[in-house]
Design brief:
Length: about 70
């Protein structure tokens, strides 16, 4: 298991768990980041990530991506 920040671009991964405070986990869940969901990194810009999850592209900070374990 590793944080999403270490993922290669255009490779598909499965989310294992979400860490962080309850409000952070809830926010990520609302964006579609839930355990068992498929996720891939589309691009990285200045440490931030553009991620494809549930057929949607979402931009998240590096800090948020550290809490998503794949």
């Amino acid at each position: 298991m590793m944080p999403l920040t270490f993922a290669g671009t255009e490779e598909s991964y499965v989310i294992q768990r979400i860490g962080g405070k309850p409000e952070v986990r809830k926010h990520l869940e609302n964006l579609g980041f839930v355990a068992g969901a498929e996720v891939s990194v589309v691009n990285t810009m200045g440490g931030n990530l553009i991620v494809k999850v549930k057929e949607a592209r979402v931009a998240i900070s590096q800090e948020m991506a550290q809490k998503i374990m794949i």
